[in-house]
């Protein structure tokens, strides 16, 4: 939660610079010791605007896309953020360093950027499937 809250405050102060720093994989937006701990940000259309792990997905829309089990977790993130402001979602995802599928629990927070737009700031923890 701390990483999401830190990122949300930065987006509120200077969205464009924060997105640039996230996309560059800078600390604190990507943990240098734990590469699986990083920030990613959606707009309210579920388009990725920043991702500290994979800049190639920036600009991609994820509305309706599911995890490998068929769970539309991104849509759940959007729905929860718009309804409650913050929340948690569980899903299955590939770890950025490991080659296995992992359970991932992501915390998200709706925030207002310095540019007047709404964003959903996210970060999560991985746990090996079957563990």
UniProtKB/TrEMBL annotation:
Domain Double Cache: 35-124
Any one Pfam family match given in the protein's UniProt record, by short name: dCache_2
InterPro entries for the chain: Double_Cache_2
Protein known as: Double Cache domain-containing protein
